[in-house]
Design brief:
- By secondary structure, this protein is an alpha+beta fold.
- Helix content is 25%, strand content 33%.
- The protein has 13 helices and 19 strands.
- The protein has helices spanning 40-54, 81-84, 132-141, 158-162, 237-241, 263-266, 269-275, 281-284, 286-298, 312-322, 360-366, 371-377, 381-388, and strands spanning 2-9, 14-23, 26-35, 65-68, 90-93, 96-102, 107-112, 121-128, 143-149, 179-186, 190-192, 202-207, 218-221, 255-259, 304-311, 326-334, 337-346, 351-359, 393-400.
- The strands form five sheets. The chain has a six-stranded mixed beta sheet with strand order 3-2-1-6-5-4.
- Strand 5 and strand 6 (96-102) form a beta hairpin.
- The radius of gyration is 27 Å and the shape is globular.
Length: 401
């Protein structure tokens, strides 16, 4: 028996119906989005219409379509979609039957780090179908398999590859590549690449699971080979890491503060030509820089980390994967700014109680304590506008040890 995949989107009051219909040895994927409150009769009319459009001379209407429950009884056509579709029901179109699979664990997006460096962490961002809780369950249960290409490729010109807004992809026939499994595990979204990975491609497969069922595996392949390992003696953080090899015990606390230089500032003509003209372009590119940032911050083994100029995408999409043992709280500076402040703390040492933030320019204007100061500032219209437009914030977390 074939399958009919049903996915509900309650936030959008709709569901997705997907199945493969076969006629005269021709198989076609059909997908229909219907309202949750719509009756089966209306839904079946639309499905029949879609089938007639896809298959010439197909004689079919809603009377040829049925939904059967587990006792093989026909579900009433008056039943609304939200109540009709159940796991293991049978969806029947004429003589073809499909087993209903409801909200199967499914990968929505799977993306590898675009720049891979030997000796550094590589991680894959994965977005699953479903609400926030469902996505978390699948993320914690899914299996990730990491592969290394058996073929060694020519080194990539990183400046040409990464300074371009549309990087050039390698002209490689993926069907000819053979792979060797190098690592795998449950929720294993990050590994460290050793020297043997240099100038090779990386592939990651994700097998989505929710503890009871396994969905369809999805894979992604790196857009360029792994870059050569950096001489760690040349990295400024290497000496500092010698002092932070281990986590501290409960009698001490290690605090790290770091300005990461947000991508929205480094990826500008001003940054490349005026602010950092001495810096090679690839080192300013955030796709390269963030790998070194994560490696550096992670190996400080800090209890509390304060980050400035931290963009939400970097925090939620990268650091969350690379540093799963930390809880994070953040605040962007304003609607016009992508970056802000972030606080990360070890989840096993601290219990989050509350968080609040203060916009300093707003505080100057409304807090009576600063009324005299603001009055003096307001005497200079240019200074007043400059300070009022600043997005500087103070973020405060209260934690229990």
């Amino acid at each position: 028996m074939s399958f009919c995949f049903i996915r509900t989107y309650e936030n959008h009051n709709c569901l997705q119906i997907e199945f493969k219909y076969t006629k005269n040895h021709i198989e076609i994927d059909l997908l229909s989005i219907r309202d949750l409150k719509e009756s089966l009769e209306t839904t079946f009319k639309r499905i029949a219409l879609n089938l007639r459009k896809r298959f010439e001379n197909l004689s079919i209407d809603e009377t040829d379509i049925n939904l059967l429950d587990k006792e093989n009884q026909i579900v009433s056509l008056e039943t609304k979609n939200i109540d009709a579709w159940k796991e293991s029901y049978t969806f029947r179109i004429k003589d073809q039957e499909f087993k209903v699979v409801l909200n199967l664990p499914s990968v929505k997006k799977l993306n590898l780090t675009k720049v891979l460096i030997a000796g550094m962490p590589a991680f894959v961002k994965c977005e699953f179908e479903g609400d926030e809780l469902t996505q978390k369950i699948i993320e914690d249960k899914s299996i990730f398999k990491w592969y290394l290409s058996n073929t060694v490729y020519d080194p990539v010109d990183l400046i040409e590859q990464e300074s371009d807004k549309k990087p050039k992809k390698l002209s490689i026939n993926m069907d000819t590549i053979t792979w060797s499994l190098i690592d795998q595990g449950v929720s294993k979204q990050m590994i460290y690449l050793n020297e043997s990975c240099e100038n090779r491609l990386i592939k990651v497969e994700c097998y989505p699971k929710d503890g009871q069922r396994e969905g369809i595996a999805v894979e992604t392949v790196s857009v360029s080979p792994v870059l050569k390992q950096i001489d760690k003696d040349k990295l400024p953080m290497t000496q500092r890491h010698m002092q932070t090899k281990n986590l501290l015990d409960s009698n001490s606390i290690r605090v790290v503060t770091y300005n990461v230089l947000a991508n929205c500032y480094s990826d500008t003509s001003l940054a490349k030509t005026d602010l950092y003209p001495y810096c090679p372009l690839e080192y300013l590119d955030f796709k390269y820089r963030k790998i070194l940032l994560i490696n550096e911050i992670k190996h400080y083994n800090a209890d509390i980390i304060f980050l400035q100029e931290c963009e939400t995408e970097f925090l939620e999409g990268d650091l969350r994967i690379a540093m799963p043992d930390y809880t994070s709280k953040s605040k962007v500076k304003g609607e016009r700014t992508k970056e802000g402040e972030a606080i990360l703390f070890r989840s096993d040492r601290f219990k989050f109680i509350e968080s609040f933030d203060i916009g300093l320019s707003q505080e100057l204007q409304i807090n009576p304590i600063f009324s005299r100061l603001w009055e003096n500032i307001s005497k200079d219209s240019e200074k007043k506008k400059f300070i009022a437009d600043r997005g500087t914030i103070l973020q405060v977390n209260t934690n229990d040890v």
